[in-house]
Write a structure and sequence with these properties.
Oligomer: single chain
Distance between the termini: 12 Å
Structural class: mainly alpha
Radius of gyration: 19 Å
Number of strands: 2
Order of helices and strands: HHHHHHEEHHHHHHH
Length: 311
């Protein structure tokens, strides 16, 4: 029954995405061009990868507010270390750091019994300060050529950044829908106590989910660095709220246990179509954040009302 409802919700999200895209195309004819679609999907790939981790965490009933500065710290480490030790070493170091940061978030939630919101908010504050200290206020270095190619290069007319997102998205959908690991994530989100009594190691699962969130945040930072060619302070700030909005708009329950990454993909693209519309309307960044917040509240209200009706 839950699966059936989830599919229905996901279908509605995709219909919403198509309608919004047609609206944006009517406002600006250039939005129907292949070049614009390609550019939109490249930009959406950064948020899409960031939202992978957020989807996993939200499905367990948690939330990760540290993704923005995990992304930023990973990006500045990559650019600065690339100059001194080469791009491969820099990327591997940053990805390991992302795993460690996420694991610490998970350990705080599991062992210190700190709520996910407070734990990840505190971690975000620590990472923000660490980023300023590490860069001395001015990030140095630049992305290597192969990092730039991995985002802006093309294969058979499709940007490689989009292909990376497609491959990772396919893996995420299979993991959540076809593996025991994925089923355990849903089980924890539905009822942690029941999942524990069923023999699921809740502590390991939660720590691993937050660790993956940190990993995906750094990966998104590396992709953004490859796209822009450099890192800068605050480069993840504008993606924090959209990373949550993409998951919620995609139909995943903010309480956990229902949803999936298929919906998050549509939610991510909707965010960027909405951004294109707001660009046409000349909406400033502050106004966009307000719009994203209102969209989250509207979707939560809609899903909450729908649940009451069905109960």
């Amino acid at each position: 029954m839950i699966k059936k409802l989830s599919l229905t919700t996901t279908a509605r999200v995709y219909v919403m995405m198509i309608v919004l895209y047609l609206m944006s195309g009517l406002m600006e004819k250039n939005y129907f061009s292949t070049e614009h679609i390609m550019q939109l999907l490249v930009m959406a790939s950064f948020l899409g990868i960031l939202a992978m981790g957020q989807t996993l965490v939200i499905l367990t009933g948690g939330i990760d507010l540290s993704v923005a500065y995990t992304l930023n710290l990973g990006a500045v480490i990559v650019t600065q270390m690339t100059v001194e030790q080469g791009g491969v070493t820099a990327v591997v170091t940053a990805l390991i750091l992302g795993l460690v940061i996420g694991a610490l978030n998970g350990a705080g939630v599991v062992y210190l019994k700190i709520s996910p919101m407070i734990m990840t908010l505190a971690m975000s504050s620590i990472l923000k300060s660490a980023t300023y200290v590490y860069t001395d206020g001015t990030p140095k270095g630049a992305a290597s050529d192969w990092m730039k190619y991995m985002v802006t290069g093309s294969f058979m007319g499709i940007k490689i950044g989009i292909l990376v997102w497609i491959v990772l998205a396919a893996a995420m959908i299979v993991i959540l829908g076809k593996t025991t690991y994925g089923r355990k994530i849903f089980a924890i989100g539905i009822s942690p106590s029941v999942s524990h009594l069923s023999g699921i190691n809740n502590k390991f699962m939660l720590i691993s989910v937050y660790a993956l969130s940190g990993l995906f945040a750094v990966l998104a930072g590396i992709m953004m660095t490859g796209f822009s060619g450099l890192s800068y302070l605050g480069m993840g700030d504008a993606l924090l709220l959209p990373s949550i909005a993409a998951v919620v708009i995609g139909g995943s329950s903010i309480m956990g246990g229902r949803g999936g990454y298929v919906g998050t993909i549509a939610g991510t693209i909707i965010i960027y179509i909405l951004s294109s519309i707001l660009t046409v309307l000349d909406m400033k960044d502050a106004g966009r954040q307000i719009i994203y917040g209102l969209v989250i509240l509207a979707v939560l209200f809609m899903y909450g009302r729908e649940k009451k009706v069905r109960v």
